[in-house]
């Protein structure tokens, strides 16, 4: 029954222009696709008859393993192979990949060496990387890997895992220019490229409709707004320049007028810093540059004043500062925030780990070198997880558990390395490594604990009260 059904489905899809009508399939049709993918190990046992993220992801995995065009759509060639029952199973693919790439390391932010150099050269040949192939996995390499993964239907992790390296080195990976040309779309069109366009616009805050794959008025308006915010010609057409900006990894998200955020500069930022300083939340020099320390102050101000969490200075925050009724960072407020720190647990620790890992390899301006190296970074990631660290002394009180084995710290634990004449604060990666940033490095780095520990090592696991 399933084979007859899929044969009919394959014939139906062959009559369609590309994948334009993929989301118009009846739920029973998608249900059969899900079951076929499940039988090969690509889909979970939860079938819902929807061409949702899970099903599209399973299709991409199936297509990658079987050397098909990675569209994430039930196109004719994909369904024909599903129907034949001769496709490579997920298990077979993983075994083959493991044997073929068993010796390859996972390359990620902070990695360095010839393997990274080869990765950069391969990405450069395909147009994803334009920097110097220096063998250092930094921000530019992270962005290039993420773009490659997006264009080639892989999970956008930013780490060059074995699946990414396999796709990069085997078969015919999609070049950046070819991806952009295939992504161009205009009003009235439909298909895979439109759905991807809608999803990206939605993630950046420009589109709030259903990602249907049909380019209607809502999509046109979203493209128009995106072009305006990103300095492009306002045409409402997702042309080459628009797609290049949208998928670059550097696209500007939609913001309300007057909102200030990371990367902004000027008089408005100077005034924000001065106002935050007057309330006790910002104790650095007023520079007019919205960097990590300014975002830390904004997050702390939001927590103390009961505003929605976030790192932007929006109209609500600016109005509170102007009102004269903002809660200052008094000793009483310090005490309230200390109690909130004491209440941190597993959820906050997980969020801290996720934030720290996402920042690996990125630049970070740390200006905390007087006493406690790494404090600015640890404070930043803690506040991003709503753990209101206000000063290093309060944090150090909680980092009291001695670490005897390097495999003890869990991901998200706050670590303190105590040497003969210095202290370094960091975040555990949970794999015998730590993520940290200092003024000396200028970047967020990940290193093995053995290489960092020159003295005693302590941790705060957010399960032990001070």
Please give a handful of descriptors for the protein shown.
single chain; 466 residues; alpha+beta; seven-stranded mixed sheet; 20 helices; 45% helix; 6% strand; globular; disordered N terminus
Shape, per Cα inertia axes: globular
Mean pLDDT: 84
Q: Proportion of β residues?
A: 5-15%
Q: Could you tell me the radius of gyration in angstroms?
A: 25 Å
Fraction in helix: 40-55%
- Biggest sheet: strands, sense, closure? 7 strands, mixed
What's the end-to-end separation, in Å?
64 Å
Coarse structural class: alpha+beta
Unreliable sequence segments: 1-24
* Helix and strand sequence: HHHHHHHHHHHHHHHHHEHHEEEEEHE
Number of strands: 7
Q: What is the helix tally? A: 20
Can you lay out the helices and strands and say which pair or pack?
Blueprint: H1 2-14, H2 27-39, H3 53-65, H4 76-84, H5 90-100, H6 114-125, H7 139-151, H8 162-169, H9 176-183, H10 192-203, H11 217-229, H12 240-246, H13 267-278, H14 292-304, H15 315-323, H16 331-342, H17 346-358, E1 372-373, H18 375-384, H19 392-398, E2 401-402, E3 414-418, E4 423-428, E5 433-437, E6 444-448, H20 449-452, E7 456-460
Give your account of this protein's structure.
This protein is 45% helix and 6% strand. The longest helix has 13 residues, at 2-14. The model is unreliable at 1-24 (pLDDT under 50). With 466 residues, it is of the alpha+beta class. It is globular.
């Amino acid at each position: 029954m399933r084979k007859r059904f899929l044969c009919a489905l394959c014939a139906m899809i062959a009559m369609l222009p590309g994948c334009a009508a993929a989301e118009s399939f009846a739920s029973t049709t998608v249900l059969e696709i899900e079951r076929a993918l499940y039988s090969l190990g690509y889909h979970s046992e939860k079938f819902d008859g929807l061409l949702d993220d899970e099903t599209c992801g399973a299709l991409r995995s199936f297509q990658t393993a079987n050397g098909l065009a990675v569209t994430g759509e039930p196109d004719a060639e994909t369904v024909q192979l599903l129907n034949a029952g001769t496709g490579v199973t997920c298990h077979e693919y993983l075994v083959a990949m493991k044997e073929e790439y068993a010796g390859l390391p996972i390359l990620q932010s902070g990695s360095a060496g010839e393997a990274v150099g080869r990765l950069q050269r391969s990405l450069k040949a395909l147009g994803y990387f334009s920097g110097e192939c220096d063998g250092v996995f930094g921000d530019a390499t992270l962005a290039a890997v993420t773009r490659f993964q997006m264009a080639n239907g892989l999970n956008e992790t930013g780490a060059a895992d074995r699946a990414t390296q396999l796709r990069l080195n085997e078969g015919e990976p999609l070049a950046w220019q070819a991806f952009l040309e295939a992504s161009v779309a205009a009003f009235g069109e439909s298909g895979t490229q439109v759905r991807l366009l809608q999803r990206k616009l939605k993630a950046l805050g420009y589109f709030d409709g259903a990602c249907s794959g049909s380019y209607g008025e809502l999509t046109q308006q979203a493209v128009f707004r995106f072009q305006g915010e990103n300095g492009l010609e306002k045409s409402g057409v997702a042309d080459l320049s628009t797609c290049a900006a949208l998928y670059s990894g550097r696209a500007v998200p939609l913001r309300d007028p007057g909102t200030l955020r990371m990367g902004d500069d000027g008089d408005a930022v100077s005034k924000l810093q001065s106002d935050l300083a007057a309330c006790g939340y910002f104790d650095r020099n007023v520079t007019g540059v919205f960097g990590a320390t300014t975002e830390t102050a904004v997050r702390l101000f939001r927590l103390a004043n009961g505003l929605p969490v976030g790192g932007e200075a929006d109209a609500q925050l600016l109005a509170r500062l102007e009102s004269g009724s903002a809660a200052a960072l008094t000793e009483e407020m310090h005490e309230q925030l200390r109690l909130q720190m004491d209440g941190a647990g597993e959820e906050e620790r997980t969020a801290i780990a996720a934030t720290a890992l996402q920042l690996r390899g990125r630049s970070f301006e740390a200006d905390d070198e007087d006493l406690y190296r790494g404090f600015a970074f640890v404070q930043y990631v803690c506040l991003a997880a709503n753990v209101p660290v206000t000063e290093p002394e309060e944090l150090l009180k909680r980092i009291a558990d001695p670490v005897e084995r390097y495999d003890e710290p869990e991901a998200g634990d706050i670590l303190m390395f105590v040497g003969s004449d210095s202290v370094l604060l960091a975040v555990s990666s949970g794999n015998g490594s730590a993520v940290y940033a200092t003024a000396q490095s200028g970047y967020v780095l990940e290193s093995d604990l053995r290489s960092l520990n020159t003295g005693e090592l302590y941790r705060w696991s957010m399960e032990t009260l001070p």
